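Quick one from the shared queue. A colleague (R.T.) flagged Transcriptional regulator as missing a structural entry in our internal table.

Convert sequence to structure tokens.
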Amino acid sequence: MAIDSTALEDFSRAKRKAKFQSILSALTWKNNDLLSLYEVTSIIKPKSETYMGMRTIPVNKIIGSEGRYHDFSSAFFPKREQLRNRWCSIDSAVINDVILPPISVYSLGGYYFVRDGNHRVSVAKAQGVEFIDAEVVELDTEIPLYPGMSMKELKDKVVDYERNMFIAQYKPSYLPMGDIVFTSPGSYPEMVNHILVHKYYINQNIDYEISFEDAAKSWYENVYSPIVKEIRAEHLLAAFPGQTEGDMYMWLVRRWDEYKRENKNISAAEAVRRAGKERGKDVFHRLERYMAYYLKKLSKS
């Protein structure tokens, strides 16, 4: 089917909207990208999927894509000129009342991620279509999603959920939870694993099973607090803007494990100092690369 002038005008208008949305988002410090299904599921980690069959779904609840999230704005307007031909051919089909096949989506938290049919969704958005037919596969999650959500906001939601789940399950009034704060998904479950490993080693030397509560108290006093004390002594947080002492604890425990493969006798204090020096070098090298890049651009202007 030949692409008519109306479709070309529709594409140009939609692309201008994507550009305007990008500028507005930059000015208001908001996200203008579609959510990536892969990135979202790598954080949320759905436990199951269910084939739901054919459904009619709201277009305004489509917030992401499996593979084309770089090609469209968060409102699903086209961002790239390379999309013109495909986009216009679909728009022409809609203008001429050609019935198009349903799109294919994943349902996640009440919202949808396109598997197949990104251009059809974009045209539907541009045409003001409210509903679209879709073949739906549902992924389970208890994390709330919403349009325009950034990956940082999603990570924060996941961290809050994991913290609340930990508190609900273990009722840790015996731990100073105000001092144990993480900002990375997976950290609270990892903390539980640290406590259980600590519990295991304690049980090797006694003839009874200690409780999770007693193991957690011992972990905090004998593992977590000494490492945090070293972090403070080395002023390590200054090299990690936006990180908490809990984040640093997790990072250092992983680094400490790596160091122990080289030297089994390395102490926590030595691991902290070594990691701090490495981090300082990383910051310096990044600053050095940035200045070289900036000066190169300046010389060309």
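The first strand starts at residue 35 and ends at 36.
The CA atoms of residues 275 and 294 lie 28 Å apart.
Added to the table.
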